[in-house]
Design goal:
Blueprint: E1 2-4, E2 8-10, E3 16-19, H1 28-40, H2 50-55, E4 64-68, H3 75-82, E5 101-104, H4 109-118, E6 123-127
Antiparallel strand pairs: 1-2, 3-5, 4-6
Protein name: DUF123 domain-containing protein
Pfam families: DUF123
InterPro entries: DUF123
């Protein structure tokens, strides 16, 4: 169980998770990189977004980011494409999706690449060095 803002205490079974988000605008990827590093370094800032709660909890390990360059808001399209086992209400307070966080039993990196391809984006896999939280 982990407290996730307004969602309250949430259960996360052991496995793999796919979070669908965006980093649109100038410096988007650099902003995402800085954001991840701050929370992996035990930053003093309180969690602002749902994903911050996972990034700041040592039971979760960020292993990779699968990115696709676009100027379009595709996170909802990707969320619908991925679907499946979800953590209801996670990361989607600004849209009508049921979730932007999905659970998988196995490593979903290839599935994420296929989803980005289906949305017209060339997927780029960025491995994260464990313990550094840095893309």
């Amino acid at each position: 169980m982990l407290p996730i803002g307004a969602l309250g205490e949430t259960t996360f079974p052991a496995g793999w998770y796919i979070y669908v988000g965006s980093a649109l605008g100038p410096g988007g990827l650099a902003r995402a990189d800085r954001h991840i590093r701050v929370f992996h370094a035990g930053g003093e800032h309180p969690p602002r977004w749902h994903i911050d709660h996972l990034l700041s909890d040592n039971r979760f390990i960020l292993t990779a980011a699968v990115c696709g360059e676009t100027e379009d808001r595709l996170e909802c399209t990707l969320a619908h494409y991925l679907g499946g086992d979800e953590i209801g209400g996670f990361g989607c307070s600004d849209c009508r999706c049921t979730s932007h966080l999905f659970y998988r039993n196995n490593n979903p990196q290839q599935e994420c690449c296929k989803a980005l391809n289906a949305c017209g984006c060339k997927p780029v896999m960025i491995s994260v060095t464990p313990g550094q939280g840095h893309i």
